[in-house]
# Entry
Amino acid sequence: MADNEKARAKTEQTVGKVKKTAGEAVGNERLTAEGRAEQAVGDAREANEKIKDIGRH
# Structure
């Protein structure tokens, strides 16, 4: 399950970055904000998984 969550975090980070970049390129503030939010969710999920990994060692 942890590997699945790590992959999900990376996917969210990547999709968020793409949305943010696309939004900035076309001047779409909503898309930019959506991308930032998605990146933040991915960052939080990744941090949570890292904490779980530390607890397992």
Remarks:
- The chain has two helices and no strands.
- The chain has a mean pLDDT of 93.
